[in-house]
């Protein structure tokens, strides 16, 4: 089989990329979306809460409503897709091998590939929490699927470890379903979730959030009977004498998301050690020619609207490469995160003709009050942006216009910093 564009992942990123590629000039039959789940839509199918679409559609939608609009558009356009399909490998010459009930074991040769595989949750195994292995320990996303799609209640008395957005949302969801959420523990001195989720999911329901606290032991043999929590010091080590036993039958883990990038190794794609996603330029192209990445497979986003914008960029860039051919780059300029900025995307700028605009996404490593963020080219400040507050749980961005882009095209190093 041969396709001009193969998109791996049929969630919000993959769907948006396919639609934009079609708008840019690729015929619907030139595009193939490969989705491993039973239906298109990705993780949004289980996110039945509102809060999606304010930036993209100017209205508040639930997850299924948001993804449903893209699914309907893909189907109406006649863009080809396959579900229940698992990608087994991706090579650097853009050969995608997958298996499915419809196609069997198949290899697709593509002119361009977009990786939109989303992310996965860290599990108990990544945390090394002492104790037995009883039933009742779930990742927050797993519990969300049980409750919202499968119709099962994971438990009735709950402790949540980690204050990521999924954990906060599940604290509210479990409460609405009749469970008692004892507390949310966060090992860091700040929450990893959006401020609005802390207010709407915890404060509104009287659920306590304990910062600088973690679970140090799980009790129970057949089923969770309780957990021991303890405060931690600045090195995130438990402080002796602060231990407390909490009776519960369920422990939900919301301890971070990791971009799903196992297939990247076969394509020799360079990965960012901080984000876990691919190293890309401003066109979302990875280090391997003709392979692009977007969405949570690239770096973890807090809003799906940002995923959509990023996917539009990847879809347009991939389509233009297929239609117009590869443009030789004049030079590549690295982008470096410094000071309290943890990472930036893109991590490099490919100069091949004039740049009309550039947008840098980044996150900070600590909560900052009234920070000033700067874009520097060879040490010269090109643009500065003042913020009232910046937190690790919320992504920041800086956009450069055409005149500002002119100033960085001849630079040897671009830095994203804070004062």
Mean pLDDT figure: 95
Give the name of the CATH architecture of the largest domain: 3-Layer(bba) Sandwich
Name of the CATH superfamily of the largest domain: FAD/NAD(P)-binding domain
Overall number of strands: 29
Structural overview:
The protein contains seven helices and 29 strands. It folds into three domains: 192 residues, 3-Layer(bba) Sandwich (FAD/NAD(P)-binding domain), CATH 3.50.50.60; 133 residues, FAD/NAD(P)-binding domain, CATH 3.50.50; 91 residues, Sandwich (Immunoglobulin-like), CATH 2.60.40. The longest helix is centred in the C-terminal third of the chain and has 21 residues. Strands 1, 2, 5, 6, 7, 8 and 19 form a seven-stranded mixed sheet that branches. Strands 10-17-11-12-13 form a five-stranded parallel sheet. With 419 residues, it is an alpha/beta fold. The N and C termini lie far apart (53 Å). The mean pLDDT is 95. It is globular, with a radius of gyration of 22 Å.
């Amino acid at each position: 089989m041969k396709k001009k564009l193969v998109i791996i992942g049929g969630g919000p990123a993959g769907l948006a990329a396919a639609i934009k590629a079609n708008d840019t000039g690729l015929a619907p039959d030139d595009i193939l979306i490969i989705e491993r789940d039973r239906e298109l839509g990705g993780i949004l199918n289980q996110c039945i809460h509102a809060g999606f679409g304010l930036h993209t559609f100017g209205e508040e939608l639930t997850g299924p409503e948001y993804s449903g609009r893209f699914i309907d558009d893909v189907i109406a356009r006649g863009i080809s897709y396959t579900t229940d399909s698992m990608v087994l490998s991706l090579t650097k010459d853009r050969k995608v091998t997958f298996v499915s009930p419809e196609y069997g074991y198949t290899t697709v040769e593509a002119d361009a590939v977009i990786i939109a595989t989303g992310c996965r949750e860290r599990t108990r195994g990544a945390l090394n929490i002492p104790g037995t292995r009883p039933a009742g320990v779930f990742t927050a996303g797993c519990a969300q699927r049980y409750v919202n799609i499968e119709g099962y209640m994971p438990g009735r008395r709950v402790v949540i470890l980690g204050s990521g957005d999924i954990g906060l949302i599940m604290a509210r969801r479990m409460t609405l379903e009749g469970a008692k959420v004892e507390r949310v523990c966060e090992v860091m001195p700040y929450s990893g979730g959006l401020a609005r989720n802390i207010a709407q999911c915890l404060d509104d329901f009287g659920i306590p959030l304990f910062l600088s606290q973690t679970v140090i032991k799980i009790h129970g043999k057949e089923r969770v009977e309780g957990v021991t929590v303890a405060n931690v010091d600045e090195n995130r080590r438990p402080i002796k004498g602060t231990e407390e036993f909490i009776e519960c039958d369920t422990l939900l883990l919301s301890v971070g998301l990791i971009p799903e990038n196992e297939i990247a190794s076969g394509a020799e794609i360079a990965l960012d050690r901080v984000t876990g996603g691919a190293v890309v330029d401003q066109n979302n192209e990875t280090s391997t020619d003709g392979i692009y990445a977007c969405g949570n497979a690239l770096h973890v986003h807090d809003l799906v609207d940002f995923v959509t914008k990023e996917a539009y960029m990847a879809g347009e860039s991939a389509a233009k490469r297929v239609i117009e051919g590869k443009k030789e780059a004049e030079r590549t300029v690295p982008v470096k995160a410094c000071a309290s900025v943890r990472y930036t995307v893109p991590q490099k700028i490919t100069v091949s003709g004039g740049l009309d605009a550039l947008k840098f996404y980044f996150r900070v490593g600590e909560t900052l009050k009234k920070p000033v963020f700067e874009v520097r080219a060879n040490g010269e400040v090109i643009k500065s942006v003042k913020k009232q507050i910046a937190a690790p749980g919320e992504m920041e961005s800086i956009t450069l216009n055409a005149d500002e882009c002119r100033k960085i095209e001849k630079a040897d190093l671009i830095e994203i910093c804070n004062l």
